[in-house]
Amino acid sequence: MRVFVTGASGSIGSVVVPELIAAGHEVLGLVRSDAAATAVTAAGGTPLRGDLTDLDSLRAGAAQADGVINLAFSNDWNNLEAGIDEEARAVQTLAGALAGSGKPFVHAGLTPMMPGHTSTEDDPDTTDGPVGGRGHTSQMVLTLADQGIRSSVVRLPRSVHQRGSQYGFCSVLIAAAQKTGVSAYVGDGTQRWPAVNRLDAATLFRIALEDAAPGTVLHAVADEGDTMRTLAEAIGGVLAVPVESVASERFGVIGRVFALDMPSSSALTRERFGWQPTHPSLIDDLAAGGYPALG
After folding, report:
1. Strand-pair category, 67-70 with 2-6
2. Integer Cα distance of 217 and 122 in angstroms
3. Name one GO molecular function term (predicted).
4. Distance separating alpha carbons of residues 251 and 265, to the nearest angstrom
5. Per-residue pLDDT tens for 40-98?
6. Half-sphere exposure of residue 22, counting CA atoms within 13 Å on the CB side?
C-alpha cells in the first residue's frame, strides 16, 4: 500500500520508512527541509514538504495514501505544551481526512505509568502529569475506530535507542554526563525505565499498519524496566565519570518524569502479533559506548 508517514526523517521515521519499503509498500514522507527530503528519497520514499502545523500538507498526504503512520512530535521540552497541542491538531486533521475510508491510521503513543505495577496494553493511557496531553491524543486516536478508520496506537517506551545514535531519555543522561562530568540519576535510582531498539519498534509499526484491528493498542517494549541507577552506572562506566544521585529539578521539566517508576510489558503484543525483539538491549547499547557528542 502507499503509506503517508509524518516524521519520516526523524529518529523513528528514518527506520520505519525503509522497513515499509522492504516489505513492498510505497512511502510518502512528510519532511520540513531539503536535507530531510534527500534522506527520504535516498531511503526509497517520496518526500512531501510540510510539517504538523501545515494542516493542508497533512490533508494532502492522507488523501494520496492508503494508510497513515503518525510519528512526528516536536520533542521540544522547553515548549512541551505547544508540542502536545500541535500533535492533537494534527491528529484531528488526519482523522478528518481519513473518516469513513476504512484505511489504517497508526499513531505513536507512550507506554502508560501505572503506580504499583507493570503497565500492559490493557491499561489506560496516562492523562495527567507533564505529558498527560499526549495520553489524551492517543485515546482520541483509538476512538477513531467509530469513524470508519482502522486506528491503532503503538505505545513507545521513553528510551527508544540504537547504538551510536539514539538513546531516548538516556540521551539526556549522556548529554548531562558529558557536560558536567557526573553521570546522574534521580532520587534513589530504583525507578524503572522500559526500552526498545528502534529497529524492533519499526517492525511493530509495520505490523500495526498491516494487521492491527480498529482500536488496538500495541506495546513496543523489549526491556520491561532497567533502573535509572543501572543506566547511569552504564553511562558513567563508559565515560569514566562518577555516578551520583541528584534532585529531579536538575533535569528541568523532564525531571518530573525521570522521578517516576514506569515499567511496561509487551506480552500481549507478542502473543497477538508474533512480534519478537531481536536487536541489542538498551544496556548493551549503552555499554558499547561510542556516544555522539550530545551536550
Report:
1. parallel
2. 8
3. aldehyde dehydrogenase (NAD+) activity
4. 26
5. 999 999 999 999 999 999 999 999 999 999 999 987 767 888 989 999 999 999 999 99
6. 11
The alpha carbon of residue 192 and the mean position of all alpha carbons in its chain are separated, in whole angstroms, by: 17
- Kindly state the helix (H) or strand (E) to which residue 5 belongs, with its residue range: strand 2-6
pTM score over 0.70: yes
Domains of the chain (ranges, CATH numbers): 2-158+196-219 (3.40.50.720)
Mean pLDDT of the 109-124 span? 93
Q: In the chain, how long is the greatest CA-to-CA distance?
A: 57
Write the pLDDT tens digit of every residue in 83-98: 899 999 999 999 999 9
Report which of 98, 113, 192 is spatially closest to residue 145, judged by C-alpha positions. 98
Look up cell 492522507; give the residue. Answer: 62
- String of b and e for 242-276 (b: at least 16 CB within 10 Å)? ebeebebeebeebbebbbbbbbbbbeebbeebebe
